[in-house]
Each structure stands twice: as C-alpha cells, then as structure tokens.
C-alpha cells in the first residue's frame, strides 16, 4: 500500500504527478474545509510535501498525530515548528545545497542593479527620456565594502562571487565561522556602519525578526545599499521606507517582503528600490533540482527511515501559522 501523504499546495505539474504516482496524496489546497478533510481522509497521514512560503500551519501539524516526515521545497523553514517536530520525532527535510548558487547569483545581480541603477535606467529609456535628459551617475560596486548578514551556504556563495569584484568582505551572524577568510563583526550596527552594501542571507524567524532596524539603516547611511534575498521579516519595512524616501540610505533591492505577495504601496513610488517577486531560487535548473530533492527526501524516508537533507538543529525560529478559515 502506498504511504498516505498530504500536499499543502501545488508544487509543479511534474512533481505533483510524481508524488501522486508514488504516494496516496491528499491535496489539501483542493479541499474547501481542510481540517474536516483530514478527519475523513481514511488512512493516517504519515508525510507532508510543502514549500517554504507555505510551511506547515500549526493547527495542521497538531491535527496529524501520525505524521512522521515533512519534505519542504526550500531552505527557509521558518514556517514550520521545528522544535515541536523534533519533540514528536518528525523528520523535517529542506532542499539544502541545491539553491545556494542561484540565490547568490541573484544577490549579485541585485547589488549591481541597485548601485548601477540598472532597473531605473531601463525605465528611463522605455519612457523615452534619453533624448531629453541625462541619466544620473551611479555607484561602482567593484572594490566596495560588502557586509554579509548570515554566512551560511548562501552567504558564502555571495562572498565568493563578491571577491571576484574585488570587494572587501566582512560578515556577521550568530557566531564566528572558523576557517572562513572573511572578517567577523559581532555587531550588526558596526557592520552596517563599515559597509557600502549590506546583503541579507540570514534565516527568517523570531530570532532575526526586525533585526535590520532604523538604527541599522542609519548606520548604513546615505551612501549605503541594502540587499535582501533572505526573508522580509528580517527588515523593519516601515523604517526602510522612511530611509529610502528621506535619503537615509542610497537604495535597496528586495526579493522578499514581510507579507508576500503584498508589497507595501509606498515602495512602488520610489525610484531607488528594486522590487522582485521572491525569485531567488526561481530558475528552471534549480527548481528541477529542488523538486527532485523534495521527492527523494520522502522516498528515502519511507525506504530507509531517514531523509537525505535534514533540517539543521531547530532554534525557536518560526512564525506562528494557521490554516485559512
Ligand atoms: C522557496 C525560499 O522555496 O528556499 C527558500 O527558503 O524561500 C524559496 O526558495 C521558493 O519560493 C519556492 O517555494
């Protein structure tokens, strides 16, 4: 008999089909009343396939007493209660190792875009302004100072790329990483004060919520740029809007927002911010690899009792979630 799993939302036509072939899948997003559907679901639900932006709502987790494994497409597991999974012996897997390059590529793209004003210049040409006006000078990124917040796999991939631009690199995080060539700075405010560009690659969740505060932005200063490819929750968005509108920082480039897919209206009116719809891992190649790993983690669990790419130790890093009513 195929193991019964629950899928929180559509992932991709290919992966959805593969999951349906290997498992007895309860497609939660197609149920009008999800919790009631669980009650009538027949065999006990032993696994979940989900994605990072959806995670596993707390009331869903609580409603699945037989759950053994969660396989998540993505590495940001801040929407899954890892501590309670651990307490219940539920294995949680993310797609670690296959998306770092893509997210780091995008971070570099955003650094260059923000400083060289690429998106703004493109809007300028499209608006037919080139024949009448001069586009203002931008800022060089080669040789500038880069502060990385969170030197995990993605942060390190950003650092390696930035080194090729002769950037001077420092980082901050929960602790100094032994064996890294980059200088560690334990204060985020100090790092921001030193840096020309601050790139966020840190985990989301309670421990990092709002850590890029008005004080950090003030330290970054009127010549500084903020790049966020981590989680919107890491930044105090109201403070960022104020800093961008008032010249407190030079510019920003954001792939993530606190309440996706809603982007605060005030950002749209600003020229000095690049806005993207959370596309860090959004390439055909990386999504293919992520999806293969979502499937492999479930297959491996049901064949051997262990997922392939487990979540690292849980902190209290999560946002409380609930199912839509
Ligand atoms: C998402 C992400 O997985 O890895 C993460 O934490 O946020 C992304 O890669 C992606 O949006 C697809 O769900």
TrEMBL record:
**Gene3D superfamilies given for it?**
NAD(P)-binding Rossmann-like Domain (3.40.50.720)
Does the UniProt entry include the keyword NAD?
yes
Domain D-isomer specific 2-hydroxyacid dehydrogenase catalytic stretches: 36-306
Xref: Pfam families: 2-Hacid_dh (PF00389), 2-Hacid_dh_C (PF02826)
Q: Does the keyword Magnesium apply?
A: no
What InterPro entries would the database entry show? D-isomer_2-hydroxyacid_DH (IPR050223), D-isomer_2_OHA_DH_cat_dom (IPR006139), D-isomer_DH_NAD-bd (IPR006140), NAD(P)-bd_dom_sf (IPR036291)
Q: Which residues form the D-isomer specific 2-hydroxyacid dehydrogenase NAD-binding domain?
A: 108-280
What keyword terms does UniProt attach to this protein? NAD, Oxidoreductase
Report the sequence similarity comment from the record: Belongs to the D-isomer specific 2-hydroxyacid dehydrogenase family.
Query: Could you identify this protein by its name?
Result: 2-hydroxyacid dehydrogenase
What organism, scientifically named, is this protein from?
Thioclava kandeliae
